[in-house]
């Protein structure tokens, strides 16, 4: 029994074998852009939280490694315990670029010079050289002049020497890093992926951006950032105040933005179901005629609702993790009504008031049916067996538990069936709804709404932790 989603493992020889979201074409095109763009350059992958940016850039990085293109993946959040992002960044470069660093004596020497200069910069600190005002990035030389003017009278020669040494260290750092790239990358750009920037503490995130802009503005370097711009904007304002134009600030760092296309999540959902081994769980239940189609109903209903609700990949993972736990608490011969279970779980999250009214003695199904119609537009609904299945079970659950007469919703569908002027698809949809309403009673087992809601409420005790963006 697998209760946990298995992280993607990439085949080093064929990374796209693990591509669940059909990202290959995007990555191949972006690779050509990164290899041919005038460097230095910063590319931002723009997509909201939970849409698979981390998986995307990890897949991209594995593709580059498979093609022997120099690259490095840097998870900023895993290193924000460090006081200075330059220290942690150089440390990760030292580990991640070992194959390039050890390629030749010249490369080794250039890298040692780069580290030595970087240590000097980090040791002294360079707030005056990379400070960014709320109006935008200030020219480093102008800052030095201003700082020298302010300190010359009070700190005299020591202050002047310190600033000049910092400037010399940065110049040496640039020269050494340029030499390293020229000797190690064989004419290719070195592509560095920076992930999870928006999850870092604000000061660390901003300082890392500033280090990238001022210290790594080197020919042959291409940075790929994968931030949630909204969250990163909050970090910028936390550091520089609410008056700063966060978007304008970020534009000074970023040369290109690329918006990830919204993937067809059907294949992704199927792969998650395989990862959770849910089909194996449902297989023994197929010996009971009433449960023959339970797995198919669960999968297809979830796909329809996930597409209609435009769930993020993270939301898909978390809801399926909940579904996985909910169904595994059922005995082999116990009715689950997975189509209704899945819809009610989503309704409880997105429409909690309507959900509570539905499960109460006084409520009926009309409000949740209206919500279902919002999720599945009319042009798709008439052809959707899954939508009719959900609606039928919504009616059946209330009919079986709280009343004996037909509800307004059921009477409407019976009228549609009798209306000769309506089109075939509409009549067919209503016939499916009516047949679904009849089905539990025909099987000699009604829909136990109380048991279903108890199962859903039990899930509130679980917390699904995020591991990847």
Q: How would you describe the overall organization of this protein?
A:
The chain has 469 residues and is an alpha/beta fold. It has two domains: 15-259, Rossmann fold, CATH 3.40.50; 266-461, no CATH class. Helices cover 61% and strands 7% of the residues. The protein is built from 22 helices and seven strands. A five-stranded parallel β-sheet has the order 2-5-6-1-7, sandwiched between helices. Strands 3-4 form a two-stranded antiparallel ribbon. A hairpin with a 2-residue loop joins β3 (132-133) and β4 (136-137). α5 runs antiparallel to α7 (140-184), α8 (202-215) packs across α9 and α13 (294-309) packs parallel to α15 (338-350). The longest helix is centred in the middle third of the chain and has 45 residues, at 140-184. The two termini are 25 Å apart.
End-to-end Cα distance, whole Å, is 25 Å
Please count the beta strands (DSSP E, at least 2 residues each).
7
Report the β-strand fraction as a percent range: 5-15%
The run of helices and strands is HEHEHHHHEEHEHEHHEHHHHHHHHHHHH
Radius of gyration: 29 Å
Shape: elongated
């Amino acid at each position: 029994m697998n209760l946990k989603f298995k992280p993607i493992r990439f085949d080093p020889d064929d990374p796209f074998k693990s591509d669940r979201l059909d990202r290959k074409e995007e990555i191949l095109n972006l690779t050509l852009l990164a290899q041919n763009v005038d460097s230095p350059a910063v590319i931002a992958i723009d997509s909201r939280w939970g849409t698979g940016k981390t998986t995307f850039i990890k897949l991209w990085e594995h593709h580059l490694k498979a093609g022997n293109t120099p690259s490095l993946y840097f998870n900023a959040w895993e290193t924000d315990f460090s006081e200075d992002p330059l220290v942690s960044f150089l440390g990760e470069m030292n580990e991640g670029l070992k194959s390039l660093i050890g390629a030749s004596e010249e490369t080794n020497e250039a890298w040692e010079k780069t580290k030595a200069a970087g240590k000097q910069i980090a040791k002294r600190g360079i707030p005056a050289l990379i400070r960014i005002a709320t109006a935008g990035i200030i020219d480093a030389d102008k800052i030095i002049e201003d700082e020298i003017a302010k300190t010359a009278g009070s700190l005299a020669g020591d202050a002047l020497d310190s600033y000049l040494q910092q400037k010399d260290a940065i110049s040496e750092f640039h020269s050494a890093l340029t030499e390293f790239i020229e000797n190690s990358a064989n004419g290719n750009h070195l592509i560095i992926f920076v992930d999870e920037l928006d999850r870092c503490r604000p000061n660390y995130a901003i300082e890392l951006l500033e280090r990238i802009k001022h210290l790594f503005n080197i020919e042959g370097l291409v940075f790929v950032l994968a931030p949630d711009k909204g969250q990163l904007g909050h970090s910028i304002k936390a550091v520089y105040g609410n008056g700063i134009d966060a978007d304008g600030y970020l534009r000074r760092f970023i040369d290109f933005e690329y918006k990830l296309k919204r993937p067809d999540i059907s294949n992704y959902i199927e792969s998650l179901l395989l990862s959770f081994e849910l089909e194996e769980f449902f297989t023994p239940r197929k010996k009971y005629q009433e449960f023959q189609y339970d797995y198919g109903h669960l999968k297809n209903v979830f796909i329809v609702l996930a597409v209609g609700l435009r769930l993020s990949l993270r939301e898909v993972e978390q809801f399926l993790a909940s579904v996985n736990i909910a169904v595994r608490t059922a005995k082999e011969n116990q009715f689950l009504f997975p189509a209704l279970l899945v819809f009610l779980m989503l309704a409880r999250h997105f429409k909690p008031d309507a959900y509570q009214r539905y499960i109460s003695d006084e409520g009926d199904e009309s409000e949740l049916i209206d919500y279902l119609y919002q999720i599945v537009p009319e042009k798709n609904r008439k052809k959707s067996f899954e939508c009719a299945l959900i609606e039928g079970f919504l009616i059946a659950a209330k009919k079986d538990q709280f009343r004996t007469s037909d509800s307004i919703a059921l009477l409407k569908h019976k009228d549609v069936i009798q209306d000769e002027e309506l089109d075939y698809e509409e009549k067919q949809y209503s016939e499916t709804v009516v047949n679904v309403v009849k089905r539990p009673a025909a099987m000699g087992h009604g829909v136990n709404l109380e048991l279903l809601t108890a199962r859903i409420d039990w899930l509130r005790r679980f917390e699904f932790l995020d591991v990847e963006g």
